[in-house]
Write a structure and sequence with these properties.
The protein has 11 helices and no strands. The protein is mainly α. The chain has 2 domains: 37 residues; 230 residues, MetI-like fold (Orthogonal Bundle), CATH 1.10.3720.10. Helix 4 packs antiparallel against helix 6.
């Protein structure tokens, strides 16, 4: 029964992809029939993606993917360390959790596109050497609240009998308890928060590169290439090709974690 349902979901997903491509082609065909060249055919974009990844533009494309991934890694690593420290402290000290709650709410309510524009302008005028790292800063804004909540909820979800035993031994807030009891016990929540934050962080990284054009001629990320193709080169096919590559990368990241994420969600719900 489960295999049959899984097959049905795969077929439905494939039909959804086919419908999207067909609708794209139909819209492109209709526009070009009226001499409106605003949306290239999906097959031309697929061909462009092949050229960008494996043809003459491969070196520039893969370098851009590497630079974007590096910015993502920097921001995500900082977010993880902050979440590890502050989330653990919040789980052990309720007053600190109340203090930190206002910061988490602020981070979640900040419009990332607006912040990207503000930081892009400010850094371009005053601190141009920091402009390439704007995507890392925005990744922190997006990923930190999710990771923080993973550590906090995971530790709070540990059984009362375990916490009572630690309390009787006077080890409730000792580092050994954190290392060998709290973090391992919260691992499902932590891993789930990582899977939720990673794909979103990559999208924010690309978006912020487009908005701020953050990168030099030698260190352009994937989003920078998208923005450059639109604003400077007026090359819609290249812009859509780079955009499709970004979508495929997010799809790969989400796909890698899909089944582990689903399994963890089932374990948590049980």
């Amino acid at each position: 029964m489960k295999k049959k349902r899984a097959l049905q979901k795969c077929v439905a997903f494939a039909l959804g992809v086919f419908f999207f491509i067909f609708f794209w082609w139909l819209l492109s065909f209709s526009l070009e029939a009226n001499d409106l060249h605003y949306l290239p055919s999906p097959f031309r974009i697929f061909e462009e993606v092949g050229v960008l990844l494996f043809g003459g533009g491969a070196l520039k494309t893969w370098s851009a993917i590497g630079y974007s991934s590096l910015k993502l890694f920097i921001g995500f690593s900082i977010s993880f360390v902050l979440a590890l420290v502050l989330g653990t402290l919040s789980s052990l000290f309720p007053l600190f959790a109340s203090f930190e709650k206002s910061h988490i709410l602020l981070f979640r309510s900040i419009p990332t596109a607006g912040i990207a524009l503000v930081l892009g302008t400010a850094f371009w005028l005053e601190l141009p050497f920091l402009q390439p790292f704007i995507p890392s800063l925005l990744t922190i804004l997006v990923a930190f609240p999710i990771l923080y909540q993973g550590f906090l909820d995971g530790i709070l979800a540990i059984g009362d009998e375990v916490k009572d035993a630690l309390r009787l031994e006077g080890a409730e807030r000792k580092m050994e308890s954190v290392l060998f009891v709290y973090w391992p016990g919260a691992s499902n929540f932590i891993i789930l928060s990582i899977t939720q934050a990673l794909g979103l962080s990559f999208k924010v990284t690309i978006m912020s590169e487009i908005v701020t054009n953050s990168g030099t001629s030698k260190a352009m990320g994937l989003g920078t290439l998208i923005g450059k193709a639109i604003t400077l080169d007026a090359d819609l096919e290249a812009a859509l090709g780079y955009s499709l590559i970004a979508v495929l990368l997010v799809f790969v990241v989400d796909g890698i974690f899909f089944f582990p994420k689903k399994k963890i969600e089932e374990e948590i719900s049980d």
